[in-house]
């Protein structure tokens, strides 16, 4: 009996699968849409994924997104046809990449407009807003960038954690207020991270559908983290919660690092110390948020240090990656993971607030509302310092 | 933290603040690996010939060669009517055709006789002209001649517009002598012109009608012994908007970007040069012609036998303006003499050429 049903089940898998294949084959062979397409030129799409400026000129990493293989016929720089070399040569199939090497005498600090012209005369514009030599990953540069990363990532988190003793002596209401502040801060980071992820997704090659993927990856990350959290059945232990917050913030700081690194690579880094101080102030709140669940614990210095590194150090890797190996689609997906993680942490901290309030038997509405609002206001206010 | 789209304004504003971080940034820009050149970016890229289209156009596939177009006069067929008057008949067919206007860039052109510019029609002052125009294209087209003719022969909507598959015969007398043009006057006008429907229409002066300047008139009359001395060529300044945004991506003389830069026009130093120059460039108000290291005489519209401008090295033409340029390289050092539009924009987008002057 069971053998029969297994065979039946197998049949009901095989039959639809075979039909799908048959329909696809018939569609391609019979081409019922031929009447719609007659003589219409193929859709062409070109995305510039990386820009490298050095002593030899300008190099672009392009990705084709045409419905058929397309040809990069000519390149204009600042309205002039310019010699170029394509590697690998030849036409570009859908999603294929190639490096375009243009021996153009670019000028430091000025803007350059590049027009890529395909075989059908369609043009794709790429602007280098501020021309600066693209940094090379030698030891000096890695160290310099690491320093910047520590400044915008680790230092502010540590500074924020210094509020820990003050938080420990606080009443339940103050505790609730602080945790709510963390939720507000995380809510801001969630929106900010998603906004950046979507902005990057717009810059990625269209066939990848990165905009959709960003939403899906964020949701999937949150769902996966919820599933892992639910396995224990109990609410997160304070330390687990602190680690979760640190990881979520770390992923966000990774995204911030990417932004800063790519800003270095594209010349916007001259924004100067204003920017670093802005990021530092902006991220101090993050330190407060991480230690907020630990006020009833006696965390060791090692644990606190570990949390600070978990939350802050990803900024360094983000800067390295952003400066030396930037590609908009990977950056967008990394940020989407961060957004998902942050969403899950928001829910966890909210549960903690609720639980504490229940245990204390007092209403926490005023404290949680005002705390959350202050978190948002603080993050928004300090974000004004880092708007490029 | 909208750092992914840095702006130049942001750079300038930020740099005012200077600082510790500014120094870090400066190191990033001109660190030891970069050699620290502060005022130039890429420094080893000034090799000659880099500002140029890459590759070659397949003239055979196009069905026309820009070097042949220079001297490819279409004189039609002639007969003498009962009154003893020469009747000259031209045959022109409009057809849709994809042409390669710069290496690798294909343009869905509308053409006269399968080429852009269309055939250079050449007649003699006073002749009766018959132009048999057939439309094998996908749109209604006309041939509107810049010349003297009756209203019914004007080549506009209601006066000689030909539906696809149709035919019309334009008839008029060849006046005035000069360097003229014809083009399609169907609407939308811009589209019909810039898609490639234009050509040069030259009426040589009849020496018998100009007793006070017989020698000059003869030198302009195709086939006369005086005319054989001259190195005559036609140049149509045109442009192509390949992405249809009402701006040209490619500029040229006789369609193919950089054709005469990559393969210069060979000139015999000791024989005078005469250029029939026509501007049909769409979208831009003017085009121009500038010759290096020499000066020339210019006959605006070519309707006079004495120059309208003497000893100039740059002339400009609005759309449909045209004229005759006469140059002498006698006694010049052999070598390459550049000529181009003196709008740098057009130069850099393809309208740049050389004469190769040989002793």
Low-confidence stretches of chain B: 1-40, 43-48
Specify the oligomeric state.
heterodimer
Instruction: Name the chain pair with the biggest interface and residue counts per chain.
Output: A-B, 73 and 64 residues
Give the helix/strand class of chain A.
alpha+beta
Categorize the overall geometry of chain B.
Answer: globular
- What name is given to the CATH topology of chain B? Immunoglobulin-like
Radius of gyration of chain B: 25 Å
Look at the helices and sheets of chain B and give the structural class: alpha+beta
Shape of chain A: flat
Distance between the termini of chain A: 70 Å
- Beta-strand segment tally of chain B: 21
How many distinct folded domains of chain B?
A: 1
Instruction: Quote the average pLDDT of chain A.
Output: 83
Query: In the CATH hierarchy, what is the class of chain B?
Result: Mainly Beta
How would a crystallographer describe the biggest sheet of chain B? 6 strands, mixed
Tally of structural domains of chain A: 2
Beta-strand content bin of chain A: 5-15%
Order of helices and strands of chain A: HHEEEEEEEEHHHHHHHHHHH
Output the number of helix runs of chain A. 13
């Amino acid at each position: 009996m069971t053998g029969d049903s297994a065979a039946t089940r197998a049949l009901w898998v095989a039959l639809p699968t075979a039909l799908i294949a048959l329909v696809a084959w018939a569609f391609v062979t019979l081409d019922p849409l031929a009447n719609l397409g007659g003589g219409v030129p193929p859709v062409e799409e070109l995305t510039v994924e990386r820009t490298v400026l050095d002593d030899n000129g300008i190099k672009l990493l392009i990705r084709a997104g045409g419905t058929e293989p397309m040809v990069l016929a000519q390149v204009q720089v600042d309205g002039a046809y310019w010699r170029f070399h394509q590697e690998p040569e030849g036409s570009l199939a859908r999603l294929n990449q190639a490096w375009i090497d243009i021996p153009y005498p670019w000028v430091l600090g000025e803007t350059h407009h590049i027009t890529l012209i395909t075989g059908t005369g369609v043009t794709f514009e790429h602007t280098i807003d501020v021309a600066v030599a693209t940094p090379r990953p030698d030891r000096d540069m890695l160290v310099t960038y690491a320093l910047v990363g520590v400044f915008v990532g680790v230092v502010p988190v540590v500074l924020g954690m210094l509020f820990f003793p003050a938080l420990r002596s606080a009443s339940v209401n103050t505790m609730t207020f602080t945790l709510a502040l963390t939720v507000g801060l995380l809510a801001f980071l969630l929106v900010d991270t998603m906004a950046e992820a979507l902005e990057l997704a717009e810059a990625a090659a269209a066939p990848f559908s990165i905009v959709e993927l960003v939403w899906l990856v964020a949701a999937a990350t949150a769902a996966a983290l919820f599933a892992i959290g639910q396995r224990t059945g109990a609410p997160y232990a304070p330390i687990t919660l602190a680690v979760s917050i640190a990881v979520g913030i770390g992923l966000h700081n990774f995204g911030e690092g990417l932004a800063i690194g790519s800003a270095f690579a594209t010349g916007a880094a001259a924004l100067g110390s204003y920017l670093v101080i802005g990021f530092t102030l902006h991220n101090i709140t993050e330190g407060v948020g991480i230690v907020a669940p630990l006020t009833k614990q006696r965390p060791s210095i090692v644990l606190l240090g570990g949390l600070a590194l978990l939350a802050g150090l990803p900024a360094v890797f983000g800067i390295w990656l952003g400066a030396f190996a930037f590609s908009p689609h990977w950056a967008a997906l990394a940020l989407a993971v961060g957004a998902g993680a942050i969403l899950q942490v928001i829910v966890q901290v909210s549960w903690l607030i609720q639980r504490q309030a229940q245990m204390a038997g007092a209403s926490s509405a005023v404290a949680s509302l005002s705390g959350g609002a202050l978190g948002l206001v603080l993050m928004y206010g300090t974000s004004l310092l880092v708007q490029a | 933290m909208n750092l992914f789209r840095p702006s130049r304004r942001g750079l300038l504003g930020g740099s005012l603040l200077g600082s510790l971080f500014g120094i870090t940034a400066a190191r990033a820009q001109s660190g030891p690996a970069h050699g620290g050149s502060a005022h130039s970016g890429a420094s080893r890229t000034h090799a000659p010939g880099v500002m140029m289209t890459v590759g070659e156009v397949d003239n055979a596939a196009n069905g026309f060669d820009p070097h042949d177009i220079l001297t490819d006069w279409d004189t039609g067929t002639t007969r003498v009517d009962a009154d003893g008057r020469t009747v000259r008949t031209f045959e022109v067919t409009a057809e849709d055709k994809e042409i390669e206007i710069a290496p690798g860039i294909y343009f869905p052109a509308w053409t006269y006789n399968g080429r852009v510019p269309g055939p250079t029609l050449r007649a003699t002052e006073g002749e009766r002209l018959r132009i048999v125009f057939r439309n094998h294209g996908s749109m209604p087209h006309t041939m509107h001649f810049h010349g003297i003719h009756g209203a019914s022969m004007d080549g506009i909507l209601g006066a000689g517009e030909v539906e696809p598959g149709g035919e019309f015969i334009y008839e008029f007398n060849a006046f005035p002598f000069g360097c003229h043009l014809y083009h399609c006057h169907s609407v939308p006008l811009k589209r019909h012109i810039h898609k490639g429907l234009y050509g040069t229409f030259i009426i040589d002066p009849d020496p018998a009608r100009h007793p006070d300047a017989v020698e000059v008139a003869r030198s302009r009359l195709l086939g006369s012994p005086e005319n054989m001395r001259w190195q005559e060529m036609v140049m149509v300044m045109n442009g192509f908007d390949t992405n249809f945004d009402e701006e040209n991506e490619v500029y040229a003389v006789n369609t193919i970007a950089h054709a005469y830069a990559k393969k210069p026009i060979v000139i015999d130093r000791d024989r005078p040069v005469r250029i029939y120059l026509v501007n049909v460039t769409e979208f831009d108000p003017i085009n121009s012609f500038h010759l290096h290291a020499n000066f020339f005489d210019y006959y605006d519209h070519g309707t006079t036998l004495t120059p309208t401008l003497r000893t100039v090295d740059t002339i400009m033409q609005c759309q449909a303006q045209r004229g005759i340029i006469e140059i002498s390289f006698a006694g010049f050092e052999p070598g390459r003499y550049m000529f181009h539009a003196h709008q740098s924009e057009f130069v850099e987008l393809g309208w740049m050429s050389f004469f190769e002057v040989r002793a």
